[in-house]
Fold this sequence. Notes:
It is built from 9 helices and 9 strands. The protein is α/β, with parallel strands linked by helices. The strands form 3 sheets. Strands 2-1-6-5-7 form a 5-stranded parallel β-sheet, sandwiched between helices. Strands 3-4 form a two-stranded antiparallel sheet. Helix 3 packs parallel to helix 5 and helix 4 crosses helix 6. 6-chloroguanine (6GU) binds near residues 88, 132, 136, 138 and 140.
Amino acid sequence: xxxxxxxxxxxxxxxxxKISIIGRAAENGAIEVLPVNIRDYSAEKHKKVDDYTYGGGxxxxxxxxxxxxxxxxxxxxxxxKTRTVYLTPQARVFTQKDAMEFAGDEDIILLCGHYEGIDExxxxxxVTDYVSIGDYVLTGGELPALVLIDAISRMVPxxxxxxxxxEIESFSDGLLEYPQYTRPAVWHEKEVPPILLSGDHAKVxxxxxxxxxxxxxxxxxxxLEDK
Length: 227
Ligand code: 6GU
């Protein structure tokens, strides 16, 4: 799967996509992360990409032309209609369900905004999905784009190895993960729950399920309402 990231800060995207599980997946060829600098598509001699907003008010807006030409260039490279996601707090919140759905695509374009946003007319022409990562405001769409790349990539076949498989469980059943423990068996006078040392697999599974429900009820009770 290829992630085409339209951004004014391509170096912000490159770093994260070279390390850890996502970096390994990129190295294996399971995914590809391709930052594209919107500024390279500015038609102005000083490579300007922003201007004042009509109607007044503070802040600058990204102009339609460089965003559109950048998108066109990616589209001609891809050669087929491609999902184009605009990262913005003015949108619904991205979920695990979206991550699973988007992971079915071969290519995806992630558009990162900056300043006060982007001229609405170009958004109308290119954006297929508007997505936020939570109810707070960030200075740009790059961190949200990286969040999507991470969440989507781990749903792409071949990205998680067997030793990452613990990661597969969390959230897929709509519950928070149960508590986990590793050596030593006693730390700060706290013992690991004895069932986990019993070797009784069925009892361990039942305990984990019970703890997952308990934790979900305590920390995210609204998740249980859908069940
Ligand atoms: Cl996608 N962008 C920005 N700028 N802020 C956000 C966000 C996105 N999601 C939450 N806050």
